[in-house]
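Example with several molecule types.
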Amino acid sequence: MTELFELHLRRRDLGRLVAASVALSGLAACAERREKIYPYARRPPGVVPGVATHYATSVVRDGFAVGVLAESHEGRPTKIEGNPEHPASLGAAGVFEQASVLDLYDPARVGGARGPAGLTSREAIERDLAAACAKGPPPWFVLEPSSSPSLERVLAALRRRLPGARVSFHAPLANATRYAASELVYGRALEPQYHFEQASVVLALGADFLDGMPMSLRHARDFAGRREPGPAMSRVYAAETSLTPTGTLADHRLGVAPSELERVAAAVLAELATMSETRVSLPDGLQAALAPAAPLPEAHAAFVRSVVRALVGARGSALVVAGPETPKSVQVCALLANAALDAPGRALTFVRPVLLEPDGGAPLAELPDALRAGAVGALVFAGTNPIYSAPELELGALLGRAASTWCLAHVEHETARACGSVLAESHYLESWGDARAGDGTLSFVQPLIEPLKPSVSVLELLAGLASDFPASGHDIVRETEHERLALGLGKPKIADFEAAWEREIQRGFADRGAAPSLSPVLVAERAVPALASALAASHAGSRASGGQDLELHLARSPTLYDGRFSENAWLLELPHPLTKQSWGNAALVSPRTAGALGRRTGDVVELRAGPRRLEAPLVVLPGHADGAVTLELGFGHAISENLSNGVGVNALGLGVAPGAAAHVAVRATGTKAELALTEEHWTLADDEVVHELTLRDYTQNPPHFAQNLAAQPTLLEPFEYAGTQWAMTIDLSRCSGCNACVVACQAENNTPVVGKDLVRQSREMYWLRIDRYLAGSADEPRIVQQPMLCQHCEKAPCEYVCPVNATVHSPDGLNEMVYNRCIGTRFCSNNCPYKVRRFNWFDFSEARGATVLQRNPDVTVRERGVMEKCTYCVQRIRRAEIAARRERRGLRPGEVVTACQQTCPTGAIAFGSLDDESSEMLRRRREARTFAALADLGTRPRTRYLAKIRNAEHEEAGS
Amino acid sequence: MTASAREADAALTDQLVATVWSGSRYFKLGFLLLGAGSLGFAALIAYTFEVGIGLWGNNIPVAWAFAIVNFVFWIGIGHAGTFISAILYLLEQRWRATVNRFSEAMTLFAVAQALLFPVLHLGRPWFAYWLLPYPARMHVWPQVKSPLPWDFAAIFTYGTVSLLFFYLGLLPDLASTRDRAPERWRRRIYGIFALGWRGSEDAWRHYRLAYLLLAGLATPLVISVHSIVSADFAVGLTPGWHSTIFPPFFVAGAIFSGFAMVLSLIIPARKVFRLENVITPRHVDACAKLLLVTGLCVAYGYAIEFFVAWYSGDEFEIEQFFVTRPTGPNSWAFYLMLCCNVVVPQLLWSRRLRTNLKLLWLLSLLINVGMWCERFVIVVLGLEREYLRADQAAYTPSWVDLGLLSGSVCFFLFLFLGFLRFLPIVALSEVKETRRHLARARAEGAAAGG
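Resulting structure tokens for the full complex:
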């Protein structure tokens, strides 16, 4: 599973080699590979070999679309970028969007179709399924939550055709709490829209708005726009259980257990209800309803006081954000607080729910009873894996009670294993579709490639069953869009539809496709009693449990989401942003809780919730709430052939839904787990490497980090620079550590995945990693995330120690790596103070079959025994230069964008030429907070960092 | 020369050449065991060639580890030979005659081990020749700011000069062996290698001049080789490496380890071949004294390293010496190094101990271990903790690393056993000359006294 590299050495080969090296010629023959290549003789129209084309499409997760551009080389999709025009992307792409392209080439993908009698054809399965649905008890469909208008049409038709058919929308992290909360406060289900560019003060209640919400990419960009140090800089307060990218960038952060979050939210609202400025907008009787059962701990009370002071001070541009997974009471508090702070219409707007059947359709919890009762005919799972993601339903044992079971799956997962018939699901880059973004923008899913294996999309499968639809996904989506536009114009047929359709598809989202903003009216009479009863219920709940137990907090995994990407090698290896754990998850606890348990990182503990238990390694996470334990979803799959087999533990195995209140008993098992941590220790922020200061300190005494590096003495002869001078500036104030750049770099530069064993040996191959530093104390940490990549030193220590000129300087300021010349002495790595060079310990390039199709043809695939490192995406630089030369012009400002820069949601990374006065990179570099990492060594790095500025409250800054 | 002296010389020659004719059963057993070990060594080298050095425990940041440690260790061992042969020759230390052949052979075989590792250690060893300034079509030369091409050149030069020096010194003895060979085929073989040595006055005159010249040539090499090896580290930015004390410190360490290895080899050989009359306690005592002196140089080096780290005020240097070495991962090597290289040699102040051969042998082995640890401390502990604390990792050797180290020890001993078995192990002509010299001096002393 994690053993990606098998060593093939036959006895005869060994003998031969022994003989050869007894003579110890030492200088053995070259290891050249001979392969036949064939010319691209007949060129398909529109394909220019060597020139990449980009197509707009959308990545849809739990029903929410993010517009992306997919890069295609000679018909192979190789890379995903954000769609700059799409409102949910603005050009950025997150970890999951970036990694999604690898799933297309997953060697473990289901291919074709498998019936109860063995392998069969797609058509046969579809025919059989249609027949199975038509007879016996009504069918039950379990689908991923969706916002697709086409699917809406198809489902309507399907229901007409198969009356009694039930449809559940299931995903572990999807829930309808926010709709229920808005129902209480506004009398209707609403999709809240946050506008961080309008928000001067933000309170995040268990809300990872920078990384964990449907519109996070947009939030991040909007938020970053308000983080320039200065009077307009926003201030963020975060109360959260685990540590998230949002908590990383928050100015003040409070670690609270899930039950405490509710009390903090209630206290904030209660405080607002007493203040004259805000009381007016709040319903009467709120204060009484919110009267706390017990006083808050002083730290929490102080946090609440300063939050409320700041929020009220910024009334009109203040915003309270509750995470979608938080309890309804928290979300109700947030909505009421926002109303008190005049947020609606400014930093907070509403649209109607984006998802089809926002309440989730037929409750999945009723499925087991229906199965027991024999009331389910054909049971169809399409794009869902409930045996893994809802183990409390124990569907595995009950599937036999359905007349027949069907699964449309991307990989052989737990549910596919248990179903009678399995059909391959198309990847989004292979199929047509439509979906709405978090703000309601209608977006299109456009394929770039014919299905690599015979497969079908959910839309096509269900359309086939509904049977009055065209067979191809394209035609269904096109028809839906035509209907929509016709309806909008009030005409049955549109003359220029073809042009509009072409334009929409090209752009990736629809004309006038955004959802209209709503202005709902507060209905207080239901909200107040509901809030009072919810708070009372949870007080009772927390009193009932108590004891030595820890509160359980289930969270989205920042690397594997909810487990659907479990076969994605990039994501499996991706280090967790905070724990830096790769190939696995862990039970996260605060240092104090770990101390109380007497356990340390790596100790295996048993977590018990009622009858269910699981064993997980403990990882101590500074800043985590005391008295709680966080488990992240997505791990613990158990399909033996799969890559994810045995990697981590399935947090859902405790039978608790994410967001539900629960306690677990924690007991040490006495065993230790072997964790793959890419950073083993929490490193204290060091002035030589990172700087972190408060806004007040920064504005009152601007620092002078940026010494005149050019004046440093050096023994090396002056270098003749010519032309454009590439350089990078990274703003640590904007870096949330979300990892999008890491995956983007991996996808762009063909960086191999090495497997758990090699990660444990500290041999991961990332050209760009994120170093995590701890400022403040372990209980109240301030995290500084520092993307660390080749610094492209002007006096590069790697260059003068290379004996064979394999790493040299280019006239435009790049530190270049000549793979062909490298013999692998590794002296350069020893001499690199930033440790950004990676070595090909084995022949990683041949490791995994079909994934070679993903490789970027513009970037050399490195062979065994050579060094590699970040090139500042030299292939993109050269491509732009060639284009400029052909058009007889100079490079345009901003024409070259590195992969990490392009995808960064907050725009933390700026790249450009030092001679381009207009560049953002240079503008940032001239700020007083610019510094070079390890400047004293005299390496004169071209990469500079901007110190992390926290907009902390003054009293605290002074103390 | 009197007849009795001539007879005594002949008896001595017989005694010393006799080792070539009669191998005991133990030799065969030794060859078998060490041969098997050497084959295992070759197999591991083949395995590494085929699969890649990922088989080792190296990682990022510890990109250099066992291979470089072994390389520096063996090159260091290789220093005593030339030191004894050349420098002591130039200083007219006549007692060296009894041990120089041993130590030269040891040098040669140690350098052979040392040459293997840097090549094997490369990511693409088949391109090792790119380190040489050969006339390449592409006009690409080695990058001479890097110490590595110099390293390569220095080791090659040292290896070549050591071989020539060894062979030249061997010539008269090869002729003696030829002359005493019982069988014709042996006479043929030794005859070929003796290059027609007849022992004429002319030949001796040329021989002495050539030997003196080679000794003169080899002397600076003793200093230069390890100075250049030390530059592999001193040129680097790494805390714990970047130090101007390294060249003399490395040379002292090399001679220290070389003498320890000489003692480790000579004490058993003296016993096995009954050479007590040739290699007397006085010789061993002289070696032990040199061990003490060089040991003190090394201890001084350690002290200065720590002092300079503290005096520099550089937080990374201070962390390397005062935190990483005593408390970091693999700090056992640091303590073992201090114990073996600083504490243990102090026993050599005692004359009783210097003449207690069993103890001295044990002590020399400990010093060998200590010097290997010293290189481990410099290379591995230096890399384990560097500038960025966020990207630190510990090092654990793999079984291939351990196998290669023990394999190289086997191969070294295998070669050395071959030397013991097939070549005169003591420089006959020089010993005879020394005896005559002594006899003359004694006679002159007696005459003057009388």
